Amino acid sequence: MTTCDPSAPRPGAAAGLGGLLRAALWPAVALAALLCVAAPLRALLGAAADRLRAEQAIDLGGDFRVVLRDAGLRPPPGTVAQAIAQLDEALFRTLIDHPEGGHPVCRDSTDPADIRVKSRYDALVRIGLAEYRAFEGHQGWCDSRIDLVYLTDLGRASRQYFEALLLDMVRVTR
Questions:
Q1: Residue-wise DSSP of 78-101
Q2: 3-class state of residue 16 by DSSP
Q3: What is the pLDDT of residues 108-137, one digit of tens each?
Q4: Whole-number Å distance between alpha carbons of 95 and 101
Q5: Which of 55, 111, 124, 146 makes an SS bond possible with 130, Cβ 3.0 to 4.6 Å?
C-alpha cells in the first residue's frame, strides 16, 4: 500500500514548471525583440511608402525612363481655376489637343463625328476658353459654313497651366 506524503515532491512537477517557464519565455523574447525593432521598422516602411507615393517610374525601353513625382502641385490662377473647373474629360482632351492656330469646324454638318466636335467646341466657347471666327473659303469635306476655332487668352492660359503641371510632375531620365 502506498502512502501519500504531501511534503514529498511529485514526479514531473519540476519538468512541468520548467516547461511552463520555457513556454512563456519565447513569446516574451519575441515581444521584446519586436519592441526593439518596431520604431526603425515603422520608419523604414513609412519612408518606403512615401517614396512610392512621391515618385513612380515607368520604363519605356532602353535607357528611356519617365519618373512621375509629387511636385507639390500649385493651384491655378483664379480665372483659370474657374474655367477648368467646368471641364469634363472630353473637354479637357479637346483643349489639350487643340492645334496652334485655328481648327476648322463644319457648323451645320449632320455627320455624328462633326456634331461631336462642334458640341465640344461650343462648350469651350461657353466657358470662355475658345472663340469662333468665320472662315471665308470652302473645304471639300464640309457642305456648309466653316468656322475656325481659336483658343482665347484664357484658353491658352488654361492649357499652359496643364502643360506646366505635367512638366512639374514628370522627369525624363536616360
A1: HHHHHHHTT--HHHHHHHHHPPSS
A2: helix
A3: 888 898 889 999 999 999 999 999 998 876
A4: 13
A5: 124
Exposure class string for 15-48: b at 16+ Cβ within 10 A, else e: eeeeeeeeeeeeeeeeeeeeeeeeeeeeeeeeee
Domain residue ranges of the chain, discontinuous segments joined by +: 13-53, 78-173
Those residues whose C-beta lies under 8 Å from the C-beta of residue 132, and which sit 6 or more positions away, are 105, 121, 125, 147, 148, 149
- According to DSSP, the residues that pair with 1 across neighbouring strands are none
In the sheet that 130-134 helps form, which strands lie side by side, from edge to edge? Answer: 103-106, 146-151, 130-134
Candidates 1.10.150, 1.10.287, 1.10.10, 1.20.1250; correct CATH number of 78-173? Answer: 1.10.10
Helix (H, G, I), strand (E, B) or coil at 103: strand
Residue-wise pLDDT for 51-96, tens only, equals: 555 556 666 666 666 666 665 667 888 899 999 899 999 999 999 9
